[in-house]
Design brief:
Number of strands: 0
Shape: elongated
Largest sheet: none
Structural class: mainly alpha
Radius of gyration: 23 Å
Helix content: over 70%
Distance between the termini: 41 Å
């Protein structure tokens, strides 16, 4: 095989090796993109439910803001900017706070003002209002703890990915970094 192109065989091998390493480093973008769309769907559903049943508009708007920020972090990370991983990491903390706040409000609401629609269920099942409030506290408390653990682990994963990406960019020849940026960055829209 002749080596008549603008790049030598060695340079091509360097690009392939760097591209392979980068593929693993950009795994957070694939996870974050799926998370963003899932969060956005729940945000829209929460807003729609809030319009029908009352309440939930603030939580839905917060979820949409988290989804938007998640996609912003993905875009930054795809341009090999370690700041994108920091955005994704802190976004997990914000999501945990939103869900935790929602769960705390649901627990306080169940204790202070039981849901009137539960009265029929309480009567049919033979549950007392106190038992329903306790079940509500356990379920929402469990959800809050589970979400806090999962989001803390995801935040740690994203923040570590940012450190690994920064290290990769620092150790990779600048011309290869530019080639990789061009190949991983989202296409720009022309007017």
């Amino acid at each position: 095989m002749s080596d008549t192109g603008p790049l030598s065989a060695e340079q091509k091998e360097q690009i392939v090796a760097a591209s392979t390493a980068l593929h693993a480093l950009l795994r957070p973008t694939r996870v974050a993109r799926a998370n963003a769309w899932t969060i956005a769907i729940f945000g829209v559903l929460t807003i729609l439910w809030g319009l029908v049943a009352g309440g939930g508009l603030v939580v839905g708007a917060a979820l949409l803001a988290v989804a938007w920020n998640e996609l912003r972090g993905v875009r930054r990370l795809r341009t090999l900017d370690p700041e994108g991983a920091r955005i994704l990491g802190w976004n997990q903390v914000i999501l945990a706070a939103v869900v935790g706040g929602y769960c705390a409000a649901a627990i306080m609401n169940a204790a202070a003002a039981p849901d009137p629609s539960m009265a029929e269920l309480e009567e049919l099942a033979g549950f007392s209002a106190d038992l329903v409030a306790e079940i509500t506290m356990v379920v929402y408390g469990g959800v809050a703890v589970l979400v806090a653990i999962v989001q803390a682990l995801l935040a740690r994963w994203h923040l570590r990915a940012g450190s690994r990406l920064a290290e990769f960019v620092a150790e990779t020849p600048p011309w290869i970094v530019e080639v990789l940026r061009a190949s991983t960055a989202p296409p720009t829209r022309s007017a």
